[in-house]
Amino acid sequence: MGCCLKSEADSLDSSLAELARLTDTAQADVIRQIKQVRDGLNPAWLIGKGKLEEISEMVQEHQIDLVIFDRELTPKQLANLDEAIPCKVLDRTQLILDIFAMRAWTKEGRLQVELAQLEYLLPRLTGQGTKLSRLGGGIGTRGPGEKQLEIDRRHIRRRILQIKKGLEKVVKHRQLHQSRRRKMDVTQVTLVGYTNAGKSTLLNRLTGAEVLQEDRLFATLDPTSRFLELPSGEWVMLTDTVGFIRHLPHHLVAAFRSTLEQVRDADILLHVVDGNHPEADEQMKAVEKVLEELGANDIPILTVFNKRDRMEHQLVTAPGETIHMSAFNDEDLQQLLLQVDQMIHSTHFHGTAEIPVSRGEMISHLYRVADVIQSEVKGLTMEVSFRLPLRRYERMSDDIKACIRKDY
């Protein structure tokens, strides 16, 4: 069910088409799509009373099990619709949360999904109980499940605190691994993009990994990293991340922040775009919005327009570094590697630091974050020639920067 304001009418069809794909990903069949464009959204039911009666009659006539609304419903709207429509009612947020519950394999991923589900559920407990006995399994009941729905707010809040503590431990463990990678001075290249743009396929083709790749939304949820050798002989760490989507539930962004923040640690982002999608521009804007929310919009980006082999529309463009390619074309893959190689070396800072030997912590830090080319002790000073990604240099403390001169 798609309902929008007149100012949003142009994007209603595409948003409903995306909702249909999400429904398919959640393993349900779409029977009918209904649309309504309004001057104002009804605070009680979102839709008008006449449309509500039409849906209720249709549900009974066709024995429909589920009605999904293409917006996040308020607690009041969800309770009212749940009472008025004789079947289960979900909104777009619940559907996406359900898909994430299906796709989460790691401990961190499962905890993050449960956290998002419980935080979404907490203000919506009132009115849910009337239909709990006939919900059964399936869409909208994955994750915490009926038992969680029956406990009171206090217990849910307690569980939320437990999950957050559990996530803190998982995050510390991952940060330890990231610290080790930094000590190895491995450049971080991270794949980002709209869901189903082809990120996992690209990772598999470049590294020989065996990450799940399907023509479904959110086929990949948990981040996967693999080493990748560039034409110059340098090794980088290539990481695949969860796909973004329009109207990504804020509960998910908040719950998955610890995972998404890995994007901020990247030295280079490969923004993978489905170049064959008719709304590629809108999808790019959705990704850019999330990157901005994460504070990652200052990282050098190579926009990868994928699926050139299926191209039916005019070539999409973007500012900055771009490449049009197919993940299944070997020559295209080589060209991509060459561009990544060039970007890495063009965005590096080359310098020499003269640090007092008494400042061992500064010397250790430089060795930890930079690729040291040469070092020599001269009296009471250690002279260190190094290179590192420009973003890492910019994050250095003023104390260290004061000891550094740039090499040309």
UniProtKB/TrEMBL annotation:
Listed A to Z, the keywords are: Cytoplasm, GTP-binding, Magnesium, Metal-binding, Nucleotide-binding
Keyword Cytoplasm set for record: yes
Task: List cofactor names only.
Answer: Mg(2+)
Listed HAMAP family: GTPase_HflX (MF_00900)
Give the location in the cell.
Cytoplasm
Q: Which domain of life is it from?
A: Bacteria
Residues annotated for Mg(2+) binding in this entry: 200, 220
Supply the PROSITE patterns for this chain.
G_HFLX (PS51705)
Family statement: Belongs to the TRAFAC class OBG-HflX-like GTPase superfamily. HflX GTPase family.
The residue ranges of the Hflx-type G domain are 187-348
Q: Which CDD domains match?
A: HflX
Q: Which residues bind GTP?
A: 193-200, 218-222, 240-243, 306-309
Q: How does it assemble?
A: Monomer. Associates with the 50S ribosomal subunit.
Protein name per the record: GTPase HflX
Task: Kindly give the InterPro entries that the UniProt entry links to this protein.
Answer: G_HFLX_dom (IPR030394), GTP-bd (IPR006073), GTP-bd_M (IPR032305), GTPase_HflX (IPR016496), GTPase_HflX_N (IPR025121), GTPase_HflX_N_sf (IPR042108), P-loop_NTPase (IPR027417)
* Task of the protein: GTPase that associates with the 50S ribosomal subunit and may have a role during protein synthesis or ribosome biogenesis.
GO terms for cellular component: cytoplasm
- Quote the gene name from the UniProt entry: hflX
Record organism? Kroppenstedtia pulmonis
Please give the Gene Ontology molecular function terms for this protein.
GTP binding; GTPase activity; metal ion binding; ribosome binding
